[in-house]
């Protein structure tokens, strides 16, 4: 059974701006170093991406995969953005959630990720890859949002 990895960061911006950056999936290659390419395949009627294809190069994890998204967001941009893997070559599972919570200093962003591979890899290496993906994503998200 796959275990998840979680981390959080404080971003000095309102949740709406953080959410806008998270929702702009096709811009990920501009700021998320492990994402080589991103394409929105379908959008819900409300404009949120529903399905997207990514190409990832995160050390031991390299793949092109498709994610489905669920957006449980309030009008102020707080709430959760969740995704789960629907198609991949190397990845067996890649489920995650961003949780955005408004605080006095801006937005507390928590990121939870579960990764499993079709090829055998030691659990320790998978956890390390998850940790690198999460830590890098949060730091790069903070840098991107706070530069706007």
TL;DR?
The protein has 148 residues and is of the alpha+beta class.
Structural Rg: 15 Å
**Structural class by sheet pairing and helices:** alpha+beta
**Alpha plus pi helix count:** 3
Overall form: globular
CATH topology: Alpha-D-Glucose-1,6-Bisphosphate, Chain A, domain 4
- Number of E strands: 7
Number of domains: 1
In the predicted model, the low-confidence regions spanning at least 5 consecutive residues are none
Can you describe this structure?
This protein has 148 residues and is of the alpha+beta class. The chain has one domain: 2-Layer Sandwich (Alpha-D-Glucose-1,6-Bisphosphate, Chain A, domain 4), CATH 3.30.530. The protein has helices at 15-23, 28-31, 123-146; strands at residues 5-11, 35-43, 49-58, 61-73, 79-87, 91-103, 106-117. The protein has a seven-stranded antiparallel beta sheet. Strand 3 and strand 4 form a beta hairpin. Helix 1 packs across helix 3 (123-146). The longest helix is centred in the C-terminal third of the chain and has 24 residues, at 123-146. It starts with a strand and ends with a helix.
Structural descriptors:
seven-stranded antiparallel beta sheet; about 150 residues; Alpha-D-Glucose-1,6-Bisphosphate, Chain A, domain 4; alpha+beta
Secondary structure topology:
Layout (H helix, E strand, L loop, with lengths): L4 E7 L3 H9 L4 H4 L3 E9 L5 E10 L2 E13 L5 E9 L3 E13 L2 E12 L5 H24 L2
Antiparallel strand pairs: 1-7, 2-3, 3-4, 4-5, 5-6, 6-7
Helix pairs in contact: 1-3
């Amino acid at each position: 059974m796959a275990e998840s990895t979680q981390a959080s960061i404080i971003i000095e911006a309102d949740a709406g701006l953080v959410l806008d950056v998270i929702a702009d999936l096709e811009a990920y290659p501009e700021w998320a170093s492990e994402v080589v390419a991103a394409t929105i395949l379908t959008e819900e009627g409300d404009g949120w991406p529903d399905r997207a294809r990514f190409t990832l190069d995160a050390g031991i994890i390299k793949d092109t995969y498709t994610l489905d998204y669920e957006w449980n967001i309030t009008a102020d941009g707080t709430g959760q953005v969740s995704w789960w893997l629907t198609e991949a070559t190397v990845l067996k599972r890649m489920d995650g959630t961003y949780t955005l919570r408004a605080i006095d200093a801006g937005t507390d962003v928590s990121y939870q990720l579960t990764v499993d591979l079709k090829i055998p890899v030691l659990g320790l290496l998978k956890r390390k890859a998850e940790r690198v993906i999460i830590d890098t994503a949060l730091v790069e998200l903070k840098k991107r949002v706070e530069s706007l």
